Amino acid sequence: MVLGIIAAFVLNRFGKFKGETGFAFMITAPLVMPEVITGLSLLLLFIAMGQVFDIFSQRGMMTIWIAHVTFCTAYVTVVVSSRLQEVDRSIEEAAMDLGAPPWKVFFQITLPSIAPAILAGWLLAFTLSLDDLVIASFVSGPSATTLPMVVFSSVRLGVSPKINALATLTILAVSCATFIAWWLMAKAEKRRLLEMKMSQQ
To answer: Which family does the record claim for this protein (predicted)?
Structure first.
């Protein structure tokens, strides 16, 4: 998520710079790249890096983490970048004209404005990472595995009560999270309408 926010700011706020096209292509490539190609490319990369760095000599949680960050960053960048294009720059410029330092402008004006996009990007990245099976299969080793890989290997031998319980808990957690998000959004919308009604009076 942090890398996606930084990449979105580079693409939207830094203007034209040398290598901008290549940077944008590299950021958005995982969106259109087949998962098999991405997984195979990362596997070959880790094999080559394992000959130089000992940390990559054995594939495990580190390689899985790097692979998931690689393709999830693209989704966060796209979501946050689209929101940054809609932010009114005049408010930020006014704050800086009044003496606010750039870091204060970011944390008090820009960040609250793009907070819904950051949350959406985080949820999208979390869902895609939790759902990924192909890339994790390429970059994982015998010492590490992910939940989708465990579920897939279990289902191949027949559906067990553990898988049914896991699916039930997942559906329950998603339903509760969705209901809480809807309730918070409805509450915020009701408060906004009330404030607008009071300001008109």
So the answer is: Belongs to the binding-protein-dependent transport system permease family. CysTW subfamily.
The answer to whether 168 and 87 have CB atoms below 8 angstroms apart is no
Do 133 and 149 meet the contact criterion of CB atoms below 8 Å apart? yes
Domain with 63 in it: what CATH number?
1.10.3720.10
Alpha carbons 104 and 88: distance in angstroms, whole number: 16
> Is residue 152 domain-resident?
no
Question: How many other C-beta atoms can be found within 10 angstroms of the C-beta atom of residue 66?
Answer: 15
Is 18 within the bounds of a domain? yes
DSSP, res 56: G
pLDDT tens, position by position, 20-60: 888 888 888 888 888 899 889 998 988 888 888 877 778 88
Confidence at residue 76, expressed as pLDDT on a 0 to 100 scale: 92
Residue tagged 């495990």 (tokens): 60
Q: Which two tokens stand for residue 86?
A: 């809609």
Look at the alpha carbons of 35, 39, 40, 45 in this order and tell me if their dihedral is positive or negative: positive
Q: Under a CB-based contact definition with an 8 Å cutoff, are residues 106 and 9 in contact?
A: no
CB 118 within 8 A of CB 1: yes
Gap between the Cα atoms of 48 and 41, Å rounded: 11
Residues 78, 100 within the same domain: yes
The verdict on 55 and 11 lying in the same domain is yes
